[in-house]
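If your schedule permits, I should be very grateful for your opinion on a structural question. Kindly check, if you would, that the fold set down in the C-alpha cells agrees with what the sequence suggests. Thank you for your consideration; the sequence and its C-alpha cells are set out here:
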Amino acid sequence: MFNRDRWSEILEALSSNWFRTVLTAFGVLWGIFILVILLAAGKGLENGVKADFGDIATNTMFMWTQTISKPYKGLPKGRRFTYRLGDVQAIKDNVPELRFISPRNQLGGFGGSNNVVRGLNTGAFNVYGDYPEIIEQQPMDITSGRFINYGDIEEKRKVAIIGEGVKTALYSSNEDVLGTYIKINGVNFIVVGTYKKKSQGGDSEEDQKEIYVPFTSFSQAFNRGDRVGWMAITANDGSSITELKEQIFDVVKQRHTIHPDDDRAIGNFDLYEQYSRIEGLFFALKLIAYFVGTLVLLSGVIGISNIMLIVVKERTKEIGIRRALGATPWAIRGQVLLESIVLTILSGMLGISLGALVIYAINKVLDANGPVDMFSNPSVDITVVISALIILIISGLLAGFIPAQNAIKIKPVDALRTE
C-alpha cells in the first residue's frame, strides 16, 4: 500500500503549494483542537463540581422535621413533632431496600457559643451524636486512633473523635491527643481518635472542626432520651433513594399522625437527585462539545475536499498519462484518497497535540496556584483520542472520495489534450 515512490508522490503533491496546504490543514487542526479543549473544559468543570460532594455516599437523603401544615384527625396544623428511635426501626422494617439509617443529634455549630473546653482553650464546634454507620455515608480519614463502634453505643461510653481543626484549636502542635479529655457542655469525653475529611467544598475548613460521639452517650449526657434530631438514609446499590423516599415519608406520617398529602411536614435533602441532575447536565455539555467540535471539524474536511478537487484539476494531464500507461482506476483513486487521508491525519494529530499542550499548561497553573472553585483537573480520556483518530480517518476518506471519483472519470485522451 505504501512504498517510497508513493510517499514521494504524496509529499510532492502536498508541498507543491505549501501555503495552500497549511491553510487547508488548519481547518481540521482547529476542529480537533476545539473538540479536545471543549471536552477537557467540561471534564474540569465536572471534576470541580463533583469534588464539592467530597466522598459522601451520593445515594443518600438527609431528613428532618418541619412544621405540620395541614390539620389531620382532629390535630391542628402548625404543630411540631420529633423523630424517635422507634421511627428508625419502623423505617428499617417497612423499607428493606435501605442500606444505612443513621439517626443523628447535634450540638453547637459555626457561629454559636463556645461549647468545648480543654484546659484553658475553648471553642465553638459542631458536636454530633452518631452511630458507626455514619462514616460509610460521610467518609473521613481516621488520622489516629479509631472511630465510634457498637461497643461504645451499647455501653454508652463517653468517647469522642475530633477533627484536625479541633485538634489545632485545643492542643499544642506536638501534643498527643489520644487519651486526653475534652469537656462538651460541661460533660467530660475522652478522645479516642482524630479524623480529616476529604471534602473540597466551600466549607472544607469547618468540616475539620467537628466532634463525633456515640449517639447513646450523647442522648444520656445531654438529656435527649430517645429523640432524634435528623437522619442520614442511604439506599442499597441498585436502588434509588429518590424512588424510596415517599415510602419513608409514609411510614413517618403514619407514626406521627400527619396528613398523607402534607408535603411540608418532613424536610429533606435528596443528594442522589441533585447528583443525578449534575450527571445529566454534564452529559448534555459533552454532547454539545461533540456537536460543536464536529461541526468545526466538518468545515475543515470540506476545505480539504475542495482543495483536493483543485489538485485533481491541476493534475489532469498527469492522471491522463498514468491512465495511458496502464494505471488502473483503483490506483488513481487510491492515490487521491491517500493524499487526503495523510493531510487529514497529520493536521488532526497536530490539533490533538496542541490541545494536549494547552491542557497540560492549564493543569500546571492550577497545581501552582491551588484549585479553582468548581474547576479541577481538566483532562481528556484516551478513548476520546482514539475516537478522534477514527473520525480523522473517516473524514480523510470522505474528503478524498469525490475528488477521487472525479479523477477516475477523466479519459486518457481528454486528459492528454488538456493544457
User: Anything to note?
Assistant: The chain has a mean pLDDT of 81.
